Amino acid sequence: MNDNVVETNSVKAWVLASRPKTLTGAAVPVMIATALALRDSVWQINTMPVVLCFLFAFIMQIDANFINDYFDFVRHNDDETRLGPKRACSQGWITVGAMRRGITVATVSACLVGAPLIAVGGGVDGCLWSAMRCVLFPLYHTFVLRCDG
């Protein structure tokens, strides 16, 4: 069996589409915030919100990667001139319909993980605004900030 072969909609395809190397970008802000919270609370904090923050950040990063992969494919931005790692939809690793479902699952999962954080954080308005930005920014990046040239 060839190790470079990725079966359509396989676990390997989804792992590659999630772009694991980007997860450090989601983890670092949570680690910094946790370090600051530890310092300000005399080194005692509730670990559950920290775990939920990490999960939320990871899921939203994966969701953003899925959204980017999907819309770059349907807008034909992923062609032979594209630089960087291969993308799942353009390689045929994940079908367009499956990617749409994956985006839905990731977004709903992030909402479920993030909901308890709203209760812990107390500021419902601020938390909801942050949640909306997490969902909308990947779309904004794809449609507004992305260069079409």
Automatic annotation (TrEMBL):
Transmembrane segments: 50-67
Annotated GO MF terms: prenyltransferase activity
Keywords: Membrane, Transferase, Transmembrane, Transmembrane helix
GO biological process: menaquinone biosynthetic process; vitamin K biosynthetic process
Protein name: 1,4-dihydroxy-2-naphthoate octaprenyltransferase domain protein
Lineage start: Bacteria, Pseudomonadati, Bacteroidota, Bacteroidia, Bacteroidales
